[in-house]
Structure formats: structure tokens, C-alpha cells
Amino acid sequence: MTVFHYPLHIAIKQDFIELVKLILNYKQLFNMKIEETYTKRIALHIAAGKCSIEIISLLLEEGQVEENQIDLNGHTPLDIVWKLLNNLDYEFEYREETLKLMLSYKCKFSSLKSLTEFYTNLLSSFRRFESNF
Fold first, then answer.
1. Ramachandran area for residue 15 (φ above 0: left; ψ -120 to 50: alpha; else beta)
2. pLDDT, tens digit (0-9, with 9 covering 90-100), for 36-72
3. What SMART domains does UniProt report for this protein, alphabetically (predicted)?
């Protein structure tokens, strides 16, 4: 199978924020909702997979992406970013800021299981944060 990478997806994967901005400025020339053929992920999934709050913010502000698109594995962008932020040692403020941003744009979890994990782990995240003081 031939894998084709789209310019916006490449820019996001490489953290080329200025190129992402340029592509978004010329969005009429690009299909912002295009999916990767092998994962069914859109640009927001890719940005979520990199936990790039700046790119996530740019994509959501443009309003040209489907914030609750489900990929081949059944995950929304919020599922992806939550799983990564919960498993990595990001600063608490960064984690909170990223989640607040995505939730403010009505990003949703793909399932009740994901939502339950979010609330279950949220308490332990706050406890880890408090223990640092």
C-alpha cells in the first residue's frame, strides 16, 4: 500500500508551527479534513499525538477540523491527548491548559470508558500535583 503524507500532517509531525500557520492561511487550497489512509487520523489527531498545545489551538481556532473525528482505533483527539498527558510527566499546568483548551472546543471522549478513566485518573493527577508541594 502506498502511503501519502499530506503537507499539513507533515508540518504538524515535524513541529513546523510557522508552516502550519501558512497552510492554515491558505486553507482554501488544502482539504483540512483529509484523513491519513492507514490510520484515519486527521490533523487534530496528529497534533494531539504530539501534545502540541500551540498547534492544537491553531487547528481548533480555525474551525476547519472535526474535533470529535474517530480514527481507525476508535479514538478521538481528546482520547489521544489525555492518554499521553496522563502517562507522561508533563507539568501540571501544561496538562490542565491542554485539557481545558480541548474541552472548551467541545472535544469529546470516544466512549464512556474513556470518560470514566479521565475522571478516575484526574483525582490521582491532582494528588500527584499536590504531593509536589
1. left
2. 878 888 999 999 998 889 999 999 998 778 899 999 9
3. ANK (SM00248)
Dist. CA 5–CA 3, nearest whole Å: 7
DSSP string, 86-127: HHS---HHHHHHHHHHHHHTT---SSHHHHHHHHHHHHHHHH
Tell me the backbone φ, ψ of residue 117, rounded to 5 degrees: -60, -40
**What confidence tens digit (pLDDT) does each residue in 24-33 have?**
998 777 777 7
When divided into structural domains, the chain yields a total of 1
Which domain covers residue 83, as residue numbers?
7-130
How far is the C-alpha of 117 from the C-alpha of 87, rounded, in Å?
12
